[in-house]
Every structure is written in C-alpha cells, then in structure tokens.
C-alpha cells in the first residue's frame, strides 16, 4: 500500500515521547508536517506551522494525529475532516460525548477515518486477560491507578481546567482496560470526586461499579498524589475462584498467581499499525465505552473539596 503522509497537531509531551518516534520507526508513515502554537518543530517534518489550519491546506497530507488538550480537539478534528484528512485522536478523544458523536457522523459523511486511540488496550496482557475472563461471572474488581501528576504532567495547567479531566486523564486508561476485559458491561454505581480548593478538575476519585448480573464488589481508586513507585494495577476474581492481576499499566499479567505475560509496553507502535489498517480499509474505529464511564462518573459524582494543590 502507498505510504501515508501524516501531520501532527499539538507537540506536547505525548507527541514528543510517543507519536514522533513511533511514526519515524513505522515504514507505513511519513511525517510531513507539524503544527504547534508554541512554535515547536521537529527535524523529521518538512513543514512547520503555528496555525493548524495552514497544515490542513497541504494537499499531500492524508491524515493528522491530534495531540492537543481535549478542550480544543473537536473543532480541530472537524476542520481536518472537512479538509479531507483522516483523524487519529489522542485520548481522551474530545471534551464531551456529543463532540465525539459529531466527529463520528461527520467522518462517515465525508468518507474519512476517525480513530479513537485507547493506548492501554494495546497490550498482549490485556488481550490475554480478556480471553481468560470470557464467559465468567465477576465477583471482585479492584482498580488501583495512582501516580505522581508532577512527574507525568509537568506544567500542564490545562489538565486542571474544566474539561481537562484531571485524574481521569490517566484514569481513563484503566477504564479502557476494564471495558475491554470484562465479560459484560459495567456501570458507574457511585462516584466520589476530590477537587483541590484551587482547581476545576479532580485530583482523586473513588468509583463503585455495578453489572446487569450479580452483585460483585467492583471498585476503582484513582489518585494523582502518589510519589515514589507508581501503581497501575487491575485485580479481578470470578465466582469460580479464578484470580487475575494486570500490572504496570496493563503490560504484565498474572493468572492464579502465575506470571503469564511480562512485556515492555509497545502500545503506540500497535496503535499506528492499526491506523494503517484502518486507513487502507477506509474504516473508522470509534470506541466510546471508556469515555461514557468517565462522563457518568462526573454526572453522578459527589464533589469533595480537598486541600489546594500546586505544581
């Protein structure tokens, strides 16, 4: 198949850490242009723009990866689709479910691809966990997702603003794994959201889930205040006594206390392989399940004010 000429809109930490090196290493893609309001550039890009709309005027650009904060992503993705470009959306894919639905409908109308990328799903351990749990009734689920915001999001003030998702920016990774591996849908039963006194997005969250069948103990704890070793674990127990634990963000798997998968994460490599397949097939892939759980957590969440937090 022909080489995909691609542009990146937004050159923040995730674009620099993941998208740029992965695109460079993938023989199916060529980075043609980048756009950054801060004037950042990259040596592999032939063109650099301050205004993303100038990037979209390039006729050779087939697709764009949008790595901006979610609050502004909808309009950029809309403009890209109207300009005839397919779109890869970093997570979270938009600021609201309505925006994402609009992009899905517009992509179908103009015949372009929209791809929602839930990177934590792209691990062999996650696939194996899904297979192991298929057909079983879940008795217990415990998600523990605790990390240091100062380390992973230095200086990113947008993440604390309304629409920035706060602790759900990493927490949605855990939810994307949960929606992938659970043998039946889960729902938000209750939600307690801790907001620093000086912030408009939560720094911690405690969630309880329910299912259509059974009354299992299903919980999630997200916290952005953990220093030292970081915790990204998901523990599951079935009614039949099968125990399963995903660790290291979904890259390692234990079943019955035995290590089954232990791999270094290669999530973005898999994302771009999938994007190549979707572009060649001219097929969109829009998974709203993790996003819906976040929206529900905010919709029924109890707001708890905690101490002010400074970066």
Automatic annotation (TrEMBL):
Domain (Gfo/Idh/MocA-like oxidoreductase N-terminal) ranges: 5-115
Domain of life, per lineage: Bacteria
One matching Pfam family: GFO_IDH_MocA
Alphabetized GO MF terms: nucleotide binding
Segment forming the signal sequence: none
Gene3D superfamilies: Dihydrodipicolinate Reductase, domain 2, NAD(P)-binding Rossmann-like Domain
InterPro entries: Gfo/Idh/MocA-like_OxRdtase_N, Gfo/Idh/MocA_oxidrdct_glycsds, NAD(P)-bd_dom_sf
Name of protein: Galactose 1-dehydrogenase
